[in-house]
Specification:
Layout (H helix, E strand, L loop, with lengths): L9 E5 H18 L2 E2 L9 H9 L5 E3 L2 H9 L4 E7 L3 H12 L3 E6 L2 H13 L4 E8 L7 E2 L5 H10 L3 E7 L16 H25 L16 E4 L20 E2 L9 H6 L9 E12 L5 E5 L19 E5 L4 E2 L3 E6 L4 E5 L10 E5 L3 H6 L3 E6 L2 E7 L8
Parallel strand pairs: 1-18, 2-10, 3-4, 4-5, 5-6, 6-7, 6-8, 8-9, 9-10
Antiparallel strand pairs: 1-11, 11-12, 11-17, 12-16, 13-14, 13-17, 15-16, 18-19
Length: 396
């Protein structure tokens, strides 16, 4: 089957770029002495997750219980929810997975949430494996890395019946903010975010050991069994592991690295030639504006291309002039989206005609995948395989 035979809009994954991205992160994890536990919310694909395990990943990360159920049904037996998980229905579903032999772990970050987890699990004669979520600078969920009561809260967790505190976890979402000071380069911003994420998590581990909450690593044994889990694709661009108080980062959880997108390009994480996922769309209409400019419309709108912006980019995705060398098409901007239409503004005239197809690097690949039922693995113009988005729509 040829790509040209597929109806548009359609999401394509270039095999050679995908494999290179998978191998690069596996090498980076090995060099850093960390476990690679990739976040599957990016691709929601059983097929792709198996490729990650084949290349050295140990276990997977998900965000939702429904995703955990899909991957468990496919045979994955070590699943971490990098998410504060609350609710009796969700806990019961996770307990069922554990009874089926799946190692499940998830996050807590408040005394109220932890107490509820502990009560539910202890009443059933079980212990939930939990990681204390740390806010290392993103200021989303998690207790701040420098909170005065952090050690006391961790001690409370460790003493609760129904909870087994196995580690700490963070997400460096602030790595997506880019340079924050005048004169700071994109590379400097990524290094800063990476060092902050790493150092603040190691500081937390040292504080917990000094407070007697967790054992300090033995000098006769390399490292510690206490898990220190970090990772976003941007913050791992310049990740280097270090030892502090005997502790080292034990795990990374990147997700977007499998595809990359316009956001990663804008941040300086990867070039366009590393972007494995593109959207193929068709020009369905073309009109001239009263001011002499032109507007074209694509058959890919919000329901395919995300309305997320991308650091360093204008518009809602980057049109490619040549998908082989991944060079952007100049003077064309996807300036707006409606549900089924991409509004394409053109400055200086366009060579595109109604019926032409285009390739687009989306701003945020993870959101694009979640809109699809299938992804098509391709080698240039040849369709190699069709992958179901197995966890598509699994939002709880």
């Amino acid at each position: 089957m040829l790509v040209s035979s597929l109806p548009t809009p359609v999401v394509l994954i270039e095999e050679s770029r995908l494999l290179r991205n998978l191998d690069d992160m596996a090498v980076r994890a090995e060099a850093g002495g960390v476990v690679l536990r990739p976040h599957t919310k990016t691709h929601k694909s059983v097929d792709l997750a198996r490729m990650q395990l084949d290349r050295g990943a140990r276990g997977i990360t998900v965000a939702k219980v429904g995703e955990a159920e899909v991957f468990a049904a496919a045979g994955f037996d070590d699943i971490r929810l990098a998410y504060v998980t609350l609710g009796t229905d969700k806990w019961n579903r996770l307990i069922k997975l554990e009874k089926d032999g799946v190692r499940i772990s998830f996050c807590v970050d408040t005394p109220e949430g932890a107490s509820a987890v502990a009560a539910h699990y202890s009443e059933r004669g079980r212990s939930a494996r939990v990681l204390l979520e740390i806010d290392a600078g993103y200021h989303r969920c998690g207790i701040r890395w420098d909170a005065p009561g952090l050690a006391a809260f961790a001690r409370e967790l460790d003493e609760m019946d129904g909870i087994e505190l196995i580690g700490i976890l963070t997400h460096a979402g602030d790595a997506y903010h880019g340079p924050q000071e005048e004169g700071e380069s994109r590379a400097d911003a990524l290094r800063r975010a990476s060092c902050d994420e790493r150092d603040r998590m190691l500081d937390v581990a040292v504080r917990l050991a000094e407070a007697g909450v967790i054992p300090a690593p033995s000098l006769s044994v390399a490292g510690s069994s206490f898990e220190i889990s970090i990772g976003s694709t941007p913050s791992l661009r310049y990740f280097e592991n270090v030892t502090r108080g005997g502790f080292r980062i034990t795990e990374i959880r990147p997700g977007n690295y499998v595809f990359h997108d316009a956001t990663q390009v804008g941040l300086g994480v990867a070039p366009y030639t590393n972007c494995a996922l593109t959207v193929r769309a068709t020009v369905i209409s073309r009109h001239r504006n009263p001011d002499g400019g032109e507007r074209l419309f694509l058959d890919a709108g919000k329901k395919v291309l995300t309305s997320d912006g991308a650091f360093g980019h204008e518009g809602y995705g980057v049109l490619l002039y040549n998908e082989r060398d991944m060079s952007p098409l100049p003077h064309h901007v996807i300036s707006a989206l409606s549900e089924e239409h991409g509004w394409l503004s053109v400055h200086g005239g366009s060579t595109l005609s109604v019926g032409d197809t285009v390739r687009i690097v989306p701003n945020h690949a993870c959101v694009v995948v979640n809109t699809q039922r299938y992804l098509y693995l391709v080698d240039d113009e040849d369709v190699l395989d069709t992958w179901a988005v197995s966890a598509q729509g699994r939002v709880v």
